[in-house]
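Example record

One chain of 395 residues, shown exactly as stored in the release files.
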Amino acid sequence: MSLSRRRLFQRFGAAPLNGEWIAARGREAAVAEGSLDYAQAPRGASSSNVIRIASNENPLGPGQHVVDVIVGKFPEAGRYPFNAREQEPVLVKALASKLGMTNDQIVLGAGSGEILSNAVRAFTSPTKPLATAWPTFENPRDTARKIGAEVRAVELDANLRVDIDKLVEASKGAGLVFFCNPNNPTATVHGAPAVADFVKRVRAASPDTVILIDEAYHDYVTDPSYKTAMDIAKSTPKVFVARTFSKAFGMAGLRVGYGVGDKEVIKALNSYRMPYAINLPAIAAATAGLSNQGHIDQERARNTSVKAFTVKAFEQMGFKATDSQANFIFVNINRPVAAFRDACRAAGVMVGRDFPPYEKTHCRVSIGTQAEMERAVTVFKKVLGSQSNTNQAGQ
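Predicted structure tokens for this chain:
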């Protein structure tokens, strides 16, 4: 018996197929980030009473136009992706058209995390280190450790940005250099001239090193000096850019990402892919999302406004955040994050995990909806105020 769209809704109801479900806000996101195994991840995160601002998701999801496309693909669930009407080549073609690339300059992945992991597997080894800033997104470092590759981790600069000079030096003889821009967890960014100079210097110092620029938060940047590195990746050997549909596109629960750049690098990455890793609804959703730039523009504007409210609230409490160019902030709360996080969780607000060496001072807070952040700020004021009073009493 065929599964029609109407029968699907009659059987399961429409509630699970909303934007929040697709955005994957909650427990599974913590597991996917690699910070927790499934047994350790926070329970009860799916409750509507919990404000989940820990994993840098789009709180509104992908938009109703994408939800409708997803629902429309369920009747084809019995088919493998290569037998379905809408296949991976459709998404690759759409990306190539939008980005001005050729199809052989694009690799897909189950989220950009798969692409980052495969890059480490493809280009590093016990004799070819990974060069990376620290702290930054952990995936490449963790993958390198699993396969026995050396990790050269360099500290951030005084403004909590990637220290380009140190990273260039660490890249000498490396198999892969990872540059997250904007950086996660600090939300800081380097402008176009600095990125271009970085690539030029690495290419000169270590021409065999592959350069991976992670632009997961590209769509949220408002700094006028910033420019995507796509043009560099399009024309420069050994360079590629990774992006995801998990952030501004609001599809963290669907797991779709892509890499763009040097054809030989992309060919190597494709050889490490797991076949059929991206499911049919995800392929269709990502393709549909690409065609609605207005949705991304609205999400950027919404995030910028709510982020400004949140930063101001912390400033009024006496706590300063970095110059955030993402959908989260990295704020100096001047105390161990673990106690702050636990107290917030007890009050129904989930904030980010520890990011050594800043776990004694800085907390990463994702930007939710305006209503969520208003509620969260109330909790922050109470927790930070009570902890300050406790510390003063103990002095």
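Notes: DSSP finds 15 helices and eleven strands in the chain.
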